[in-house]
Amino acid sequence: MRVFLTGGTGLIGSAVTAELLGHGHTVLALTRSAASAQAAEAAGAEPLPGGLADLDVLRAGVARADGVIHLAFGNDFSSAEAVARSVAEEGAAQAAMGEALVGSDRPYVTVSGTPWVPGRASVETDQVPTDGPVGGRGRAVMGVLALASRGVRSTAVRLPRTVHNQGQGGFAGLLTGIARQTGISGYPGDGTMRWPAVHALDAAVLFRLALEQGPAGTAWHAVDDEGDAVRDIAGVIGRRLGLPVQSVPDDTFGPLGPIFATDQPSSSAYTRETLGWVPSHPSLLKDLENIQP
């Protein structure tokens, strides 16, 4: 299958590219810069210059592909306004690619986050949030899944708060960056809130399985660790960086503070049973041991 892939050179996307190529697919990768294009070519993919705002380029990429995997997102969390711009840009891009796929029965795998449900781990049948700081992402994903009624085999892979590899990535990576800046490995509140996690190489396998097997209109959870206490995550980061570990105000984490402070464990039992997905790479707490001082 020829797959049009957005975000193909990031931490997750590079793993997805390798996974697809390793299983007989070819990859047409959207690339925003010359460096990204070189990285895509080096990985064995064909670069397609452009970004999420280039809707005509996205439509052209879809036209050249047997299936689509969307991963790209403008990771600017510096302010609420920046997050809103990234969410709006991504939503428009997802809609444009979806419209280009209508009536084709081709697979369209988009990305989402695992939802949070008070008092229990979220499951695949729970709805993603459509309000709050990133509610627009939830609305866009629901729009993609609704394309199932218009001849698109649309599916969503829900990623946990931390997708990691070699101690980098996700919310845990943001905690590490903030710790380096502030000199404190901090956590919100009492730190007992739980974050799910998955290794990027395991997540890549699920994206491939969803592309190959996922029925139209379905959502899947790329969750290995159901929920690590944020205090434990901060503890490993602090030890690796030689920094004190303590509670800090929620506003330390900028516009993502409310999300950071939310207990949000998640289950992937249905995904594992249905698609035969078996994570095999290191857990988050073990992988964080790769953080360099």
UniProtKB/TrEMBL annotation:
<protein>
    <submittedName>
        <fullName>SDR family oxidoreductase</fullName>
    </submittedName>
</protein>
<dbReference type="InterPro" id="IPR036291">
    <property type="entry name" value="NAD(P)-bd_dom_sf"/>
</dbReference>
<dbReference type="InterPro" id="IPR051783">
    <property type="entry name" value="NAD(P)-dependent_oxidoreduct"/>
</dbReference>
<feature type="domain" description="NAD-dependent epimerase/dehydratase">
    <location>
        <begin position="3"/>
        <end position="218"/>
    </location>
</feature>
<dbReference type="InterPro" id="IPR001509">
    <property type="entry name" value="Epimerase_deHydtase"/>
</dbReference>
<dbReference type="Pfam" id="PF01370">
    <property type="entry name" value="Epimerase"/>
</dbReference>
